[in-house]
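Data card: per-record layout.
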Amino acid sequence: MEQDNQLLKTTIRVIKLVNGDDVVCKFAEEQLPDKSPLLRIEKPLQIKYVSQLTPRGLKDYIALIKWAAYTHDTIVSIPKDKILTITNATNEMAKSYVDVASKYEIINEQKGDKIEKLTKEDNDKYNEIWDSFRDIKKILH
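The structure for this 141-residue chain is written out next.
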C-alpha cells in the first residue's frame, strides 16, 4: 500500500501556470522531443479553491474541474514557457485526482437536449429567494 501511495505521489503532478491556474495531471507517456516548446499532459484538472461560510466561519474546499473543457481529448499540449513550477502532488491530491480522472470522459458531457422546466411551485420559491436578495441589496445601498 505504501508503495502504491509513493507511486501515485511521484506520477501525479501539480503545475502552476503563469496565469495563476493550478493544474493537476499526469505527464503523457509519449512526450514531444526535448527541444519542443510543448509539454504533453494527460487528463488535466484545474484546482479551484472554494470558500464556504459555515456556522464556525469560512472553510476552504477544493474542486477538481476539467481544465480543457469542450473537448474529448485526454492529452493536452501546453507551452513550457507558460509554466512557473511543477511539483509532486500530495497523497491526498493524488487520490482525489485518480478518482476524478477515472471519470474524465464523462465530465461536462452533455446530457442531451432535454431541458427540465421548473414546476410553478419551485419557480415561485426561487423567485421569493431572489426577491429577498434584491430587498437586502436595496437596504445596503
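Known properties of this structure: Helices lie at 2-11, 91-101, 120-140. The first helix runs from residue 2 to 11.

See the next section for split statistics.
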